[in-house]
Design goal:
Elements (H helix, E strand, L loop, with lengths): L3 E2 L4 H5 L1 H10 L4 E3 L2 H5 L4 E5 L1 H16 L15 E6 H6 L6 H6 L2 E3 L1
Parallel strand pairs: 1-2, 2-3, 4-5
Antiparallel strand pairs: 3-4
Length: about 110
C-alpha cells in the first residue's frame, strides 16, 4: 500500500484520529473526506463543507414541517467541494507538493 483514502461514514468519522495516527506511523499519505478528519492529521482532504450541508438541510426540514412529502423533494448535491492541504504532514512524509495544488487549495496548513 502506498497511500490511504477513506470514504465518509460513521465508522470512519468515529475513528478519524486513530486512522490519521496509523497513517503517520506507517508513513502513508492520507486523503480524508472532511475537515474534521483533516484536522485529525490527514495530508489532504477533499469533501463538502459538513457544517454548510447541515445548515442547508434546515430548508428541507422547514418544507417537510409545512407539509411537503420528502419523496417529492429533489436530491441536492453540495455546491462546492473544499480542498485542504497540510504541508507539515507532507514534509514529515518527505513529499514535494506540486505548486498547482496551492492554486486550488481552500486551506493550506504550513
Amino acid at each position: 500500500m502506498q497511500a490511504l483514502i477513506t470514504a465518509s461514514g460513521g465508522s470512519m468519522f468515529a475513528w478519524k484520529e486513530m486512522i490519521a495516527k496509523l497513517a503517520r506511523d506507517y508513513r502513508l499519505p492520507y486523503c480524508a473526506f472532511s475537515k474534521e478528519a483533516f484536522d485529525a492529521g490527514a495530508l489532504m482532504a477533499v469533501g463538502a463543507d459538513q457544517v454548510q450541508m447541515c445548515r442547508d438541510s434546515t430548508v428541507y426540514v422547514d418544507k417537510i414541517l409545512k407539509g411537503a412529502k420528502p419523496s417529492d423533494l429533489p436530491v441536492e448535491q453540495p455546491a462546492k467541494l473544499q480542498f485542504r492541504l497540510n504541508l507539515t504532514v507532507a514534509r514529515a512524509l518527505g513529499l514535494t507538493v506540486p505548486q498547482s495544488l496551492f492554486a486550488v487549495a481552500d486551506e493550506v496548513i504550513e
